[in-house]
Amino acid sequence: MTDESSPESGQTSGAGALARGVRTLLRPLVRLLLSKQLTYTFIANLLKSVFVEVAEAEFTIEGKRQTDSRISLLTSIHRKEVKRLRAELGRGEAMPSAANLGALVVSRWIADPNYLDENGIPQAIPRVGETGPSFASLVESISKDIPACSVLDEWIRLGVVEIDERDWVVLRVDSFVPNRGLDEKLHFFGRSLHDHISAGVHNILDEGAPKFDRLVYYDHLTAESVEELSAMVGVEGAELLNRINRKALELQTRDSIASDSSHRISVGTYFYSASTDNETPDADCDEDESHE
User: Fold this and answer.
1) Residue 11, Cβ neighbours under 10 Å: how many?
2) Please, which residues have CB within 8 angstroms of residue 203's CB and are 6 or more apart in sequence?
3) pLDDT at 288 over 60
4) How far apart are CA 274 and CA 63, in angstroms?
5) Region 194-220: what's the mean pLDDT?
6) pLDDT tens column, 102-118
């Protein structure tokens, strides 16, 4: 049996396979970073900070104080750098509150029966209204801290909603994925990939009952077949997420009075396609592998 560990680094068995997986994962991320002019030097410093943050929060020894020396030992980052980075933790920017609010508002709009028509489709609603559902009441059901008119103006700019001939508000998309607004897109990009990777890490580390994580992969397809599958995923994926959203809202309403309602969930779908002619082969992926 061949040991995949590096004798020089003293890494544990399986580190070689993990390194290949991480390299594959990083390729599209590095393409995004370079396109947005975030250099290696900047990301290397950011990565140092994340190493220190995770080591401090998740690799403690029960009954012992987490020290700069222990974090330095875990991460191979110099102790003086560890001290500086620990002092800086907690100063990072918070996730955009508008994006958080927007996701919650849309989730309620597409799941709450008060805002759906007889076919279960999100209905157009007036901006304000003394009785019955309105955009103002929808926003206020989530938060009273941000005026509904401010949310509406921003959503019109982003292309999430439009105003019809009655001056009512119409939802244009099935979920909160703005056509414009880089900050919002990056917020959901980070949150979605964080949770998906966390599910995979949980499964790899055997940290409890496995999280659901499935992939369908096929190659040797024509462009027409890819388009057909893309359309199928778009329809059936949206239907699945809408059903889950409605059930989650129902359960959240029920659990709002429970003393232990401190858990969260995230469920997502995606579709990706590429030409295999110019694609860098993924590690551990056989050419003819097709599986679910």
Assistant:
1) 15
2) 210, 211, 213
3) no
4) 51
5) 95
6) 778 888 898 888 998 88
**Selection from 5, 7, 26, 8 nearest residue 16 by Cα:** 5
Do 115 and 138 meet the contact criterion of CB atoms below 8 Å apart?
yes
User: CA-based angle 87:196:200, to the nearest 5?
Assistant: 95
Helix (H) or strand (E) segment spanning residue 125: strand 125-126
Looking at residue 280, its pLDDT comes to 62
pLDDT band at 256; cut points 50, 70, 90:
confident
Question: For the chain, first and last CA: distance in Å?
Answer: 29
Displacement of CA 266 from its chain's centroid (Å): 8
Is 9 exposed, middle or buried (CB count within 10 Å of its CB: 0-12, 13-18, 19+)? Answer: exposed
* Band of pLDDT at residue 271, cut at 50, 70 and 90: very high
What pLDDT band is residue 274 in, cutting at 50, 70 and 90? Answer: very high
- Which backbone phi and psi does 174 adopt, to 5 degrees? -80, -20
What is the model's pLDDT at position 53?
A: 93
* Tokens read off for 96: 């955009």
Which runs of consecutive H residues, i.e. helices, occur in 182-280?
182-204, 223-255
Integer CA distances (angstroms), 162 to 59, 123, 154, 156, 177, in order: 49, 12, 11, 6, 15
Residues 6+ apart with CB under 8 A from 159: 172, 178, 179, 180
